[in-house]
Amino acid sequence: MGRSFLNQKMVLYFDTFIIDDKSLKPDYYYDQTRRRKLERLVRDSDSVYKYRPKLDIVKYTLASYSVLEWAEVIIRYQLEDPVEYNHLDSFILGLFPAAKIFHERSDSCARYAENLKILKSHGDPWVFFSPNNDHPYVGNECDSIKRILSAAEFIENKHQGSIISILYSHFTEGINTTDMAKRLWARYNETFSRKVYEDSDCVAIKVNKFLCDSVQIFRLKTLLRIFTSSITEKRVVRLEDTDFYLSNKFDHILVIPKRELCRHFDGYFHYDVWGSPENAPPPLFIPPGFFEGEISIRYGYPLRKSQSVNINPDSKMYSYFDVAGADLKCSIDEIPLSWLSRLKDVTINPDCEKVFLDAIAKKNSELLWDPWGKTPIRNVVGSIRHFVRSYVRKMFFFIKNTLNLKEN
Questions:
Q1: How far apart are CA 153 and CA 158, in angstroms?
Q2: Is 186 left (phi over 0), alpha (psi -120 to 50) or beta?
Q3: Is 127 left (phi over 0), alpha (psi -120 to 50) or beta?
Q4: Domains in the chain, please, with CATH?
Q5: Once rounded to an integer, what is the mean pLDDT over residues 213-225?
Q6: Where does residue 289 rank: exposed (0-12), middle (13-18), buried (19+ CB within 10 A)?
Q7: What is the pLDDT of residues 111-167, one digit of tens each?
Q8: Which residues, in sequence order, are CB contacts of 112 under 8 Å at separation 6+?
């Protein structure tokens, strides 16, 4: 299209509360829900996926964001354990020397509105809104996000009056809601969508409800509108807590990248849509030696080596399910961009065929696009079924409410 993205402005707005892991009640981690069992299996494993303190995960997340270009960086955080403030401040300034740091998180609409006003000096920038602290950037390059911002501005000009936002995490879910031939269309809270734009970097869908989940990039004016107009009096730490969430009073267009930008650190075991845990996008880990700049990678070896990141696309299982499995099953070229400056060494098995492994890695990555493997026809049938159920349900409640009014 020839669109320019040289003047794109995006601000990192990180606003979160960081728990002290030691204060977690045992029953929170050791309850018997399916999600906790899976998370426990992963984090108690003898692998790179083993448990890491929340503060390390926050640091890893922020380090992953440091490879992106920001017009400004705002870090608002509150620690349950105040002893760590100096340590984390020093770490943040090492990543973002010009960052503005505040030791307070927003917990109401009024506070969010007041704290976001500091960004008005940039006009109406895109805001990478992050009230979460555990969605690291996993991309292996940073130019695609600029092109996606450019596409979002193109869509803004074409659909003036609509709220435009960009989904930066939950890739597999997002990409499978774009049309009726996708597995998750209409599965979430009766949200129906239709495609309004597509290019090589992203697809945009118009949805019937405002999906303002807190893993998106918004215009500043959109965030200010939400927090100044919401009348809720309850505690607000995410956009999902506001009156705007899932409202059908707004014209919302959601831009979904065609490559994964960020991923939830603990994966997505809390969703029951994958069919089996092996199908779910794997959780993340902090590579041994990441903070010291001494990451060691072994590629294409059949056996794991401790204190290294073992990558083998041909492995049958991940190391958190099987001690003989690989830590990653991707191509060596797909490692996160934030790892590159922290590498100590990369050892490639001289007996492996890289072309063969790359082909398998490509097949593995296709699971992120579609972990179910259902035919488009079956997905369409399922989507129609969900649509009809939703319509019948609405008609039932409409008739019921009408009859109740007549009785009164």
A1: 9
A2: left
A3: beta
A4: 10-257 (3.90.550), 288-364 (no CATH)
A5: 96
A6: middle
A7: 999 999 999 999 999 999 999 999 999 999 999 999 999 999 999 999 999 999 999
A8: 15, 106, 223, 227, 236
